[in-house]
Amino acid sequence: MELGARFWFGVLGISIGVAIAAYLIFALIGRAWYAWGLFGMLLFVGAILVAVGWIYDRREARRRGGIPT
Question: What distances in angstroms separate CA 54 from CA 41, 49, 66, 69, one per listed residue?
Fold first, then answer.
């Protein structure tokens, strides 16, 4: 069983995408740390994670029929 070129180009594309996303996330966290210090950075990252969790919860509840509208 051989893996074709399409598979390897897909793996390469996903790897490059993950590397770029990781760079952007680390740059954002580093910038927040530089600007606000450790505590401010933790608050900033925590606020982002809470917002993402809230959006995910709303979408899942709406998908399951728990929230009208």
Answer: 20, 9, 14, 16
What is the C-alpha to C-alpha distance for residues 16 and 8, in angstroms, rounded to an integer? Answer: 12
Tokens of 12: 């390469």
The encoded tokens of residue 19 equal: 């590397």
20 Ramachandran zone, left/alpha/beta (phi>0; psi -120 to 50): alpha
Residue 32 near residue 41 (C-beta atoms within 8 A): yes
Residue type, 39: F
What is the spatial distance between Cα 51 and Cα 47, in angstroms, rounded to a whole number? 6
Predicted confidence (pLDDT) per residue in 23-68, tens digit: 999 999 999 999 999 999 999 999 999 999 999 999 988 888 876 6
**What secondary structure letter does DSSP report for 67?**
S
